[in-house]
Write a structure and sequence with these properties.
Blueprint lengths: L1 H18 L6 E4 L2 E4 L1 E3 L2 E8 L22 E3 L16 H4 L8 E6 L6 E7 L23 E5 L4 H5 L3 H7 L6 H16 L5 E11 L1 H11 L9 E5 L10 E2 H9 L4 H6 L2 H9 L17 E2 L8 H7 L5 E6 L12 H8 L4 H10 L9 H24 L4 E7 L13 H5 L10 H11 L24 E6 L3 E5 L4 H4 L6
Parallel strand pairs: 2-5, 7-8, 7-9, 9-10, 10-13, 11-12, 13-14, 14-15
Antiparallel strand pairs: 1-2, 3-4, 4-6, 6-8, 15-16
Helix pairs in contact: 6-10, 11-12, 11-13
C-alpha cells in the first residue's frame, strides 16, 4: 500500500512537471543553455556557437567542438562578425567583430514540429559581411526555420601555406568551407530543438555566399547535410580558373612562417591582408573568390565533383547588372583580357559592335557582369541540368527609382517579400523550393504565381524578374559573349 501511494505521488509529481509550461526562449544546445527572445511572434536566437573559438593555435585548423559555458548564454544581441576591414557597405561589421565568431542565428515560428530549414550563407567577397539577415527577415512567415551562419573570412578562412599543409597531412586552405560544413552538421544534429526538420535543409547565399553554396554542392563532406540550394549571383568559379594547392601555398608562403602568423594580433593580420593578392588575376579584390583545389575539402575540381554527386533542386540566377568599373575610362582591352583570357581583343570588338541594351550599362560593366557572373551562371546551370539536376534560372532587373539594378539588390526582395512585377514575390518562389523542392508549389502565403519553367540546356529559358512583369524569356541572352570564355 505504502509503495503504491509513493508511486502514485511520484506519478502525480511527474505529471505536474510535464504540465508546467516550458520557457520557449530557453534552449539547451551543445555547450550549454542559450536565451533567445520573441520577435513579431517568432523566436530568435542570435550568436549560438557551433564550434570553438578559432584562436591562437586553432588559427588555420579545422573547426573544433564547442567549448561549454556555465549558466545561460544570452542570444539576444547581434553577435560579432568575423574579423574584417571596412569597405563602406560593411561598416557595422567592421566596427563589431571578434575572432571568436563561429556562431549562427536562428529564427523560428515554432519550436515544435518539423518545419523546413533554410540556411543563409552571407556574401562579401569571402572577406567581409555577417550572418545577421535571417534573424530579421520575414522568411519565417512562410513556415520555415531561418538560419544564418558565420565563417572565417579572408586570410583566416582561405589561407593555404606549405607549413599548414604539412601539419594537416598535405592539404591546407578552405577553412571557411570547413566552418560552413561544421555549421551544417550542427544544424543536422540540433535544428529539431528549434522546430526544424534536419532532413529538409536548403542552403542559399548571394555573391561569395552563392559561390560557397556551389562549393558545398561539390564538397564530399557536405553531401548529406543539405537537400536543395539557391545561388544568387555567384558560382563555384566566378569565371576564374581554379587555383592549385601548390599555387595557393606559394601565395601563403609570402606571408612568412605560420608560427609568426599565429602570434600576430588580428589587427596586424588584417593589415597584411590589405596587400595580399593573386598575380594571376587582374582583380585584387577577388583573391579569396578564386577557388583553391586544396585536396581535402575539394579533392578535385568542383565541376567534376558536382557532376558525380546526387542531383537536387537548385535555383541559380544573376542580376542584369552586377558590377564593374564606374565608367569606360579604363584600359578596356586589359579589362576584357582579364575576364576573357586569350580572347580579350575579340571580346572587346564584339562588345563595341553590340547594339547594347541600356539596362546592361556601359561596356566595362557588361564585360565584368558577363565574365564574372552571367556566363559562369549559364555554364553551371548547363552542368547541373546535363547531369539530371532540376534547375531554375533567373535574371533580376529592378533598380532604385527605375535605374539600373546592381549586385546584391535582390536580397531585400527575398528577405522582406518586396513585391516585383505582376504582383509576384521572389520570396514565395524561394520558400516553395525550400518546402516542396519546386518554386512553383503553393506556400502558406501564396498559392498562385507565374509558372517558372525548368532550365533546359538545349532550349534555355529563364525567369525575368522586372518592375513591369514576372515572366519567362529566352535564356542565355549573353551566349555570344560567353563563347569567349570557358572557365567556371
Amino acid at each position: 500500500m505504502r509503495l503504491s501511494l509513493l508511486a502514485a505521488a511520484a506519478l502525480l509529481a511527474l505529471s505536474g512537471c510535464q504540465a508546467m509550461p516550458e520557457d520557449p526562449s530557453l534552449a539547451s544546445v551543445p555547450g550549454g543553455l542559450v536565451r533567445g527572445a520573441e520577435l513579431k511572434g517568432d523566436l530568435v536566437f542570435r550568436g549560438i556557437p557551433y564550434a570553438a573559438p578559432p584562436l591562437a593555435e586553432l588559427r588555420w585548423t579545422p573547426p573544433q567542438p564547442v567549448a561549454p559555458w556555465e549558466g545561460e548564454r544570452m542570444a539576444v544581441d547581434i553577435a560579432p562578425a568575423c574579423p574584417q576591414t571596412s569597405e563602406g557597405w560593411n561598416q557595422a561589421e567592421a566596427e563589431h567583430w571578434s575572432e571568436d565568431c563561429l556562431t549562427l542565428d536562428i529564427r523560428t515560428p515554432s519550436r515544435s514540429g518539423r518545419l523546413p530549414v533554410m540556411v543563409w550563407i552571407h556574401g562579401g567577397s569571402n572577406r567581409a559581411g555577417s550572418a545577421g539577415g535571417p534573424a530579421d527577415s520575414s522568411m519565417s512567415a512562410q513556415g520555415v526555420v531561418h538560419v544564418g551562419i558565420q565563417y572565417r573570412l579572408g586570410l583566416l578562412g582561405f589561407l593555404s601555406h606549405p607549413e599548414l599543409s604539412a601539419e594537416a597531412g598535405s592539404a591546407s586552405g578552405n577553412y571557411a568551407l570547413m566552418d560552413q560544413i561544421a555549421a551544417l552538421q550542427w544544424v543536422r544534429e540540433n535544428i529539431h530543438l528549434f522546430g526544424g526538420d534536419p532532413e529538409n535543409v536548403t542552403i542559399y547565399g548571394e555573391s561569395a555566399g552563392a559561390q560557397d553554396v556551389a562549393l558545398l554542392l561539390a564538397a564530399p563532406g557536405a553531401q548529406e547535410l543539405h537537400d536543395k540550394a539557391i545561388l544568387q549571383s555567384g558560382t563555384h568559379g566566378f569565371g576564374m580558373a581554379f587555383r592549385s594547392l601548390a599555387d595557393g601555398e606559394k601565395l601563403g608562403a609570402r606571408l612568412g612562417p605560420v608560427a609568426r602568423l599565429r602570434s600576430l594580433p588580428i589587427e596586424d593580420l588584417l593589415e597584411r591582408q590589405r596587400g595580399f593578392g593573386d598575380p594571376d588575376i587582374g582583380e585584387p579584390a577577388a583573391v579569396f573568390l578564386r577557388t583553391t583545389i586544396d585536396g581535402k575539402v575539394l579533392p578535385e575540381a568542383p565541376d567534376r565533383l558536382i557532376a558525380a554527386n546526387r542531383p537536387r533542386p537548385v535555383i541559380i540566377g544573376t542580376d542584369k547588372v552586377e558590377f564593374g568599373p564606374p565608367s569606360d575610362s579604363i584600359d578596356l582591352l586589359a579589362h576584357a583580357e582579364n575576364w576573357f583570357p586569350g580572347r580579350g581583343a575579340e571580346a572587346l570588338a564584339a562588345y563595341r559592335a553590340e547594339q547594347a541594351d541600356p539596362r546592361r550599362g556601359h561596356i566595362a560593366m557588361r564585360i565584368q557582369s558577363d565574365g564574372e557572373f552571367h556566363c559562369p551562371a549559364d555554364r553551371m546551370a548547363n552542368l547541373l541540368a546535363d547531369n539530371g539536376w532540376p534547375v531554375w534560372r533567373y535574371e533580376f532587373d529592378i533598380g532604385e527609382n527605375g535605374g539600373l539594378t546592381r549586385h546584391a539588390y535582390e536580397i531585400g526582395f527575398v528577405f522582406d517579400r518586396v513585391p516585383i512585377g505582376g504582383g509576384a514575390h521572389m520570396q514565395d518562389y524561394w520558400a516553395a523550393l525550400a518546402i516542396h523542392g519546386d518554386p512553383n508549389a503553393a506556400t502558406a502565403i501564396a498559392a498562385d504565381r507565374p509558372e517558372w519553367e525548368r532550365w533546359n540546356a538545349e532550349a534555355p529559358r529563364q525567369m525575368a524578374f522586372t518592375a513591369a512583369a514576372t515572366a519567362m524569356e529566352a535564356g542565355a541572352p549573353r551566349a555570344a559573349f560567353c563563347a569567349f570564355s570557358g572557365n567556371f
